[in-house]
Design brief:
Elements lengths: L25 H17 L3 E3 L9 E6 L9 E14 L2 E7 L2 E10 L2 E7 L5 E7 H14 L10 E2 L2 H18 L1
């Protein structure tokens, strides 16, 4: 496994539609392994292949909705498509390809995704809350869409700091 460079907004690769994966071979496995390592190192919740310069329909998402005592884990999605979405959540969203910028984006609260695994087998996975947001965000990358085009407004640094402080205070209260 190797850590790959994450492309930054302005790179034309981020605005291109990705092609489907047709070869479920060692090159795909290496890409997915590298994306896992890159995402873990970047402390993000999702990463799409175009963010590391590969125009293929592949993403990795960190499942953060786990029971207490369980570890978060990564979900690999190849050729994913959202087949069901309901509810609504509006909140701050950021992107590893747009560092230090956050905007207010509305996404579904729950989504069901149909995808293939690294070997080509089809499966379905559901996501709630942050995981649903990450699925939607990463699938947008596969279409060449950045979250900034969906944001109703971008947050100022002061608003972001206030939101982080409020989140930290809430976490302290829950502990």
């Amino acid at each position: 496994m190797a850590q790959r460079n994450i492309l930054i907004q302005g790179d034309p690769t981020l605005e291109k539609r990705c092609r489907p994966v047709t070869d479920f071979n060692p090159r795909l496995h290496t890409l997915l392994d590298d994306m896992r390592e890159t995402l873990a190192h970047a402390n993000g919740v999702g990463l799409a292949a175009p963010q590391v310069g590969v125009l293929r329909r592949a993403v990795v998402v960190l499942e953060t909705n786990v029971d207490e005592g369980e570890e978060e884990y990564m979900i690999e999605l190849v050729n994913p498509e959202i087949i069901e979405a309901d509810g609504e959540q509006t909140g701050a969203e950021g992107c590893l390809s747009i560092p230090n910028e956050y905007g207010i984006v509305t996404r579904p609260e729950h989504v069901k995704v149909r995808a293939q695994d690294r070997f080509g087998s089809f499966f379905e996975v559901e996501g709630e809350g942050l995981t649903a947001r990450a699925f939607c965000h990463e699938l947008d990358h596969l279409e060449g869409t950045l979250f900034t085009t969906k944001a109703t407004r971008m947050l100022t640094p002061e608003e972001l700091q206030a939101a982080e402080e409020a989140q930290a205070a809430q976490a302290t209260e829950e502990a």
